[in-house]
Write a structure and sequence with these properties.
The chain is of the alpha/beta class. Helix content is 40%, strand content 14%. Helix 3 runs parallel beside helix 5 (133-149). It starts with 5 loop residues before the first strand and ends in an 11-residue tail after the last helix.
Amino acid sequence: MTSQQTILLTGASGVVGTALLPRLGRHRVISLVHKQVPPGAEHVRGDLAAPGLGLDPAVARRLAAEVDVVVHCAAVTDFGAGAAATDGLNVTGTTNVLDFARRADATVHYLSTAFVARNGMTRGRTNEGGADPADYLASKLEAEQLVRDSGVPATIVRPSVVIGDSETGAISKFQGLHSLALAVLKGALPLLPLDQRAHIDFVPQDHLAAALVALIDAEAGAGEYWVTAGEAALFTQAMIDIVTDEAARIGLSLAPPRLVEPDMVDRLVRPVFIDPLPKGVRRRFDDMLAMTALFAGADFFPRSDIPGLAALDEDRLSQAFRRSVRYLAVEKGLARPGTEAA
């Protein structure tokens, strides 16, 4: 057990930040906020993309004298945001965080993504725009290099897809995997361009938060950590079965999507069935392809052993995903409140 540390947290109102903040109770945590203020949290107002984190100079000096650790979770994760918006926060913001940490003589825990390992698997934007992970992944790769080159004691933490809390399914903002699950629940996804044996790597938000707490408490100041399911990742068919089972439990009748090889979509499905559809429908289909392309035919992610953190197994992952689907169904009005705890 380490002594109390003063932690500057970015992204406190995001998916990871909201899960992490309650677990840092024995430390002093100061959230750097721009618009949203976490309830009951000590905070300072600033702007990650501005020089000096947009802090008042007197506040910046005080923080530099007090802060021991910076946990940098804030990021643009929207695949459709474009390079300018993504670089503005993910790259420039990380540069400014590292500059502050250098002045404060503080350790940095930088939250990246496991998908930097699949940077070459993106499909690219269509003529109609839409989602493309390439800008996001490029910004994370550049930010990782900034961290490595900074000379600041730092760790790089690479989680896979983050879902809701493993016990309740709750999450502050639904992610891409939730969108796919919702489309299946609504019967709006007749096909899914993935092999049934493709593995979908995700981690519950509380597991990722626990990993960050373990690194903070261990006073880790170097290393790259993969927070993933690794070889315990669920197969696509197993996840579809969970969604279908949950749909039946709440009285929804649906036909599960047909799983097809990704190359079949471009050769056969798109020309006949997708191209004649309205532009908005085609764009939603392409957004789905942009996400599933990162899983099709991919190897398992590495998984790091972090002291004090129990590894995820298939049973825990299945239960966590089931609870996320239940929470999603209630929040989207497809099931009555209370059924998520059944």
